[in-house]
Amino acid sequence: MSWFRALKVTTRSGLTVERKRLEPLIALRGAAGLAIVIAVSLSLFGPAVAAGSAFGAFQAAIATFQRSWRPRPELALASGASLGISTFLGYLTGSHLVFFLPLLALWTYLAGLAWAAGPTIGIMASSNVAMMLVTITLPTTIAEAAGHAAMMAFGGLVQATLVILFPVRRWGAHRDALADALAAEADYARRLRHDPVAAFDPEPLMLARNAAALTPRQARTRPAQLHGARGLAERIRPVLASLADPAVGVPEEGPERDRVRELLAAAGAILDVAARAIRHGSPVKVPPDAIAAFRSPDTGAILSGPPQRAATRLGSLLRDVLETAGGTAPTPRDSAPDPAPQAPAGLKDRGSAPDPAAQSPQGLEKNGSADPDLGNLPPGAAGWARRPTVPRAEDVAPTPAPVAQPLRRPSIFQLLPVAVRAIRREARPGSPVLRHANRVAAVAVAGYLIGDLLPFGHGYWAPMSAVMVMRPDFSQTYSRAVARFGGTLVGVTLATAILQLAHPGTYLSAVLAVVCAALMYLLMRTGQLAAQACIAMYVVFLLGMGGQEWSQTVPERVVLTLVGGVLAMLSYALYPAWETPRLRTRLADWLAALGEYAAAVVAHYASPAGKSCPDVREALLKARDAHIAWEQAAARAKTEPVRHRGLSNAAADEAAHALHHIGRVVMLMEAHLPERGATPVPAADALADALRAATRDGAQAIRERRIPRWKPVRDALDAWDGEGVPDRVVRRGAALFLETLEELSDALDTDVPPMTRESTDQR
């Protein structure tokens, strides 16, 4: 992409106003906290302290809007306290340039490194530096500076208190994440009806996993609907794929395929119902036709073998999803689940071993299997999940299933060492976060010096604007710079017109500032343009409340905001952290992770260990992380004004498509993992070693711009065929795996030069 086109795309992105779901109650709560802090400060300390302390409550409310799974009161308290500390330290050195510039450089550098710990911490740290640059000009003595800092911390305390007293969808983000995962599964089931090899984006499942990590306080108060459904969604995905895929499932046409389409449609409807119930906390209303599809006795007569087992397992998992969505899943205290949950009527695998679908694969999620009392089931599900009335031997003396332990999230006090370790991992040459820290520190110092030399006064606007817009990647930095300037121009113009027409006093200026803050909270998710316009108006009214005339802020704010934005954009052009040159490394990492995942799955066919395979789960999570890293890198690279000389866009897309199919094939093999005690497949052990070695070598070849070859995998399959060991699922899956690896080589082979071909290695 050329520079002209890149600037055009980022400009359009920065000026775009999106239609998002507004949250007026949360915006009203944040504005109420800000109004309380301003009123208390005005009555006790006067306009100057009120103007400074309002920034604490303003920033604390913004922190509660960030996409974070932590309790909102913790975010507000941390934001207010950190801003107070930053302001006090900044004031101590603010009157001496020789001391303040090193402090500004250090503080900004640390704020840049804070992005290694996550975007929420990075945004809060950057905002603290920006707010510090404004507020240190307000106090006149050390005592007043300490009072300002205390009132900023008080602002965070007020916002935290309001969040506790007036919760608005307290678990809303967690419910949305889990509901989005189930809705993605439902959409996947419907797409599989028409495309048996449809791709699935794992991001909703990964987001739901992040949301499932709870602090100890959250774990004690989590709603019952959020127990276990994520683990069920994880296990449903491979079952859906294996039921639909013609390689290990039913033929592409015929009565078996028609029956599978009916089951997939019913599964999509049931998952949608469960997602809606979890999102809104409402009762489960199961569609009768979906229940009828799983209760039909025709399934056992139409399907057989792996497809029948997949249908049976799907019915059992969907029943557990409904129980969880209805809030009837047993808690760990009373969890002695049935070790062999019954599938819906008509889908039992006659003569087969009990289906262990409800067993937690890694002990990470609680089973959530049905309570024998049908009265605890969701409305409409009783007939579907009916249990046999004749007790079995295993029902009399059940084997206790492992109780799932919730994923733990460190508390706010335990977060510091975690953040330090994350920063140490990124403190390496070539790291985008390290380059961002260097870049933002240099720009902040340069912007402060330029603003101090210009004859406008209030020179802190330039570094403040630069720090607010700079991000570790190109597209966000440039789009935010454009939005910052455009929003500032609009906001200052409107605020100036109001000041000229109304001539508001202290209290009216305070009211107008609170109204602008409320509008910013309401519109901040619709785009940067609207948010920056509201922030500009808020700051003008707030400084006007503190006694500064509009003529002292408007002209310099526009010019210095432009200076800060230009500095931010120039810094990225001169000292970039392009994602495009790293695409080949991201692709190699994804291939290596998929190879480990495939090897772990295949190895369990040689040594059957049942469905509980922690090594498979760990390898799957690493493969997903590598997949998401590639998707994010590819998305950023598409907006960058550079070209990768060793990997064209077409080759990158085709290679990613091949790796998507590799992951799908391994998922199909995982869906049919043998039960504990099943007949081993000795040839699978050698195949697992070959897959692990070949993908590692292939990843290294991709990094070195060579075409990867798969001779070890081909030799292992030839040896398998020579032994004559039949196994439909794993042998067919291994053949598909080799085919997709060859597709990957073909995709990379189209990009020459500088790719090279080893003439001695025949395809």
Catalogue the unreliable spans: 329-404, 751-763
The helix-and-strand class reads mainly alpha
Domain tally: 3
Tell me how many strands there are: 0
SSE pattern, N- to C-terminal: HHHHHHHHHHHHHHHHHHHHHHHHHHHHH
Global mean pLDDT:
78
Number of helices: 29
Question: What fraction of the residues are assigned to beta strands by DSSP?
Answer: under 5%
Main sheet properties: none
Protein topology:
Blueprint: H1 3-15, H2 24-44, H3 47-65, H4 72-94, H5 97-113, H6 119-135, H7 142-165, H8 172-194, H9 203-212, H10 216-221, H11 229-244, H12 255-280, H13 288-295, H14 298-302, H15 306-325, H16 393-396, H17 415-426, H18 432-453, H19 461-469, H20 474-502, H21 506-523, H22 528-545, H23 554-574, H24 583-606, H25 614-637, H26 649-671, H27 683-703, H28 711-723, H29 728-749
Helix pairs in contact: 1-20, 2-3, 2-7, 2-21, 3-4, 3-6, 3-7, 4-5, 4-6, 4-7, 5-6, 5-18, 6-19, 8-9, 8-11, 8-12, 11-15, 11-26, 12-13, 12-15, 18-19, 18-23, 19-20, 19-23, 20-22, 20-23, 21-22, 24-25, 24-26, 24-27, 26-29, 27-28, 28-29
InterPro entries: Memb_transporter_dom
Subcellular location: Cell membrane
Keywords: Cell membrane, Membrane, Transmembrane, Transmembrane helix
